[in-house]
Amino acid sequence: MSQPNAVTEIPYLAGDLAVWLIILAELLTFGIFFLSYAFARTFDVALFNASQTTLDLNSGGINTALLITGSWCVVRAVQAVKRDASAVGVRWLMAALVCGSGFVVIKLIEFSAKADAGIDLSTNSFYMFYFLLTAFHFFHVLAAMVFLSILLFKTRAGRYGSHDVHELETGAAFWHMVDLLWIVLFPLIYVMR
Amino acid sequence: MLKFSSNTLWLLLLAATGLTYWIGESGQMGHRSIVPVSIIFGVAFLKAWVVINDFMALRQAPKLWRHLLLGWLTFVIGMILLAYQWGLHG
C-alpha cells in the first residue's frame, strides 16, 4: 500500500554547476598534493617527524576551529536569507569573514615565525610540502573571503531572498570546500607522526 | 535517519577538532603505531562527511556529486593511511 504522506525530494545541487566543477578540480589538485606528501614522507620518516615537531599545533587547531565556525556561519547565513531575513544573513556573513580574517592573521604569524627562524621552502622536503600546501590553501581562503565579501554587499542590497539564493549558495559551496580541504590538511601536516 | 541542526553539527565538529588536537598534544603520536593515526583520520573522515553532506548540502543533491566528493574523501584518506603503514616498514 502506498504511503499518502511520503514526499519524494527532488535532487537539488546548491550553487552553480560551474563552481562544482571548480571544486572537483581543486579537490583533485589538493588530493595529489596530500598523497605526494604522504608518500614522500615514507622515504624519510625521521626527517618529517623531527621537522613537524617545530610546527605550532595550537595555531593549527585554532585555525581548524575558525574555518569550521566560518562554515557554520555561512550555513546560518544561507538559512536566514532563504527565509527573507537578509539583515540576519548579513550578520552571519560578517561573522564568517571575521573567522576567515582570524585564520589569515594566525597563518601570517605562523609563516612569519618560520621566516624569523630561517626556515623556508628550501630547508628540507618537509618544509617544502608545508609551505606549498599551506600557502596554496591560504590563497584559497583569501579568494573565498573576496567572494564572500561581494556576496555580503549584495545580500545587504537585498539582491537575495527566498526568490533567489543561487549566487549565495555558489559562494557558500566554495567557502565550505576551503574548510573541507583544511579538515584533511590539519591532521596530515600538523598531527600525523 | 537522525537529523541534527546546523548548531549541533557545529558543536560536534568543534569537539572532534578538540579530540584531534588532544591526540596530537598528549604525546600519543610518534610511536610508530597506526592506531592513533587511524583515529585522527577516522575523525577527519567523519568531520568531512558532515561538511560534504550537511554544510555543502550534498545530501539532497544528485547522487553523482555526493558520490564524487565522498569517493574523493575515502580514496585520499585510505591512501594516506596506506602510506603511513608503508612508512612503518621503511
Quick structural gist:
The complex is a heterodimer of chains A (193) and B (90). With 193 residues, chain A is mostly helical.
Describe the protein:
The complex is a heterodimer of chains A (193) and B (90). Chain A has 193 residues and is mainly α. Chain A contains six helices and no strands. The longest helix of chain A has 32 residues. Chain A is elongated and about 55 Å long. Chain A starts with 16 loop residues before the first helix and ends with a helix. Chain B is mostly helical and 90 residues long. The interface between A and B is large, with 47 and 48 residues.
Label this structure with key terms.
heterodimer; A: 193 residues; mainly alpha; elongated; B: 90 residues; 3 helices
- SSE string of chain B, helices as H and strands as E: HHH
How many distinct beta strands of chain A? 0
According to DSSP, the number of beta strands of chain B is 0
Mean pLDDT of chain A: 95
Supply the number of helical segments of chain A.
Answer: 6
Which stretches of chain A are poorly predicted, pLDDT < 50 over at least 5 residues?
A: none
Head-to-tail CA distance between termini of chain A? 56 Å
**Coarse structural class of chain B:** mainly alpha
Total of helices of chain B? 3
Helices and strands, with pairings:
The complex is a heterodimer of chains A (193) and B (90).
Chain A: H1 17-42, H2 45-52, H3 57-82, H4 86-116, H5 125-156, H6 166-191
Helix pairs in contact in A: 1-5, 1-6, 3-4, 3-6, 4-5, 5-6
Chain B: H1 6-25, H2 34-55, H3 63-88
Helix pairs in contact in B: 1-2, 2-3
